[in-house]
Amino acid sequence: MKWLTIDYIKRHSRIEYDCEDDLLRTYAEGAEEAILHICNRTYENLKESYGEVPAAIMHASLLLCDVSYTHRCPVSSMNLSVVPYSVDVLIKPYILLAGVPLANECNRIMEVLNVQHANMDYFANQNDDAAKILYERIDYLKSKFAAVQHPTPMILDSMRKQTADLVKAVEMYIASLNT
Question: Quick one: 123 and 78 in the same domain?
Fold first, then answer.
């Protein structure tokens, strides 16, 4: 284990006995490895970039360990659902995309959407249905594209087209206000 400790995992998950320490160690190593893989980083790179393992990475690791411990198989008799804004949101800022051309293009498209979002901030708060619809469309595309883990050329083409259509619609809307 690189940053988690058995004691820390036990405190987080409120485990008071020692008989499953080996199991917890396996979960911790898997959680750390998964997060480093998703973030496209090494432990050394993470420490070099931030001086220590960021609290959000630590939190995400503990969540993964706890889920592995409490739900030991991939199926359940209960209807389980993902807790929104948990592990993925915690580690997303630490994902290293530099040097990955498709991911960099995906980031550029997200920046265009952020600019459009900023352009429409003022208008969406007015009593203008057209502005609200555009604003909601921007939010929808942002959430849809943010979920893309590994963009492919086909996904990027779709993102480019949808974003270009949206930019055109926002420009036309703003132009209509100036006339």
Answer: no
pLDDT 10s per residue in the chain (179 long)? 999 999 999 999 999 999 999 999 999 998 898 888 888 788 998 888 889 999 989 999 999 898 888 877 665 566 555 655 567 666 776 676 654 566 777 777 888 888 888 878 777 677 788 888 888 888 888 888 877 777 777 888 888 899 899 889 988 888 888 77
Q: Are 162 and 141 in contact (CB under 8 A)?
A: yes
Is residue 61 within 8 A of residue 33, CB to CB? The reply is no
pTM for the structure as a whole: 0.50
Domain of residue 78, residue span: 6-94
Q: Which of 94, 114, 149 is the last residue of a domain?
A: 94
Whole-angstrom distance, CA of residue 31 vs CA of residue 12: 14
Whether residue 19 lies inside any domain: the answer is yes
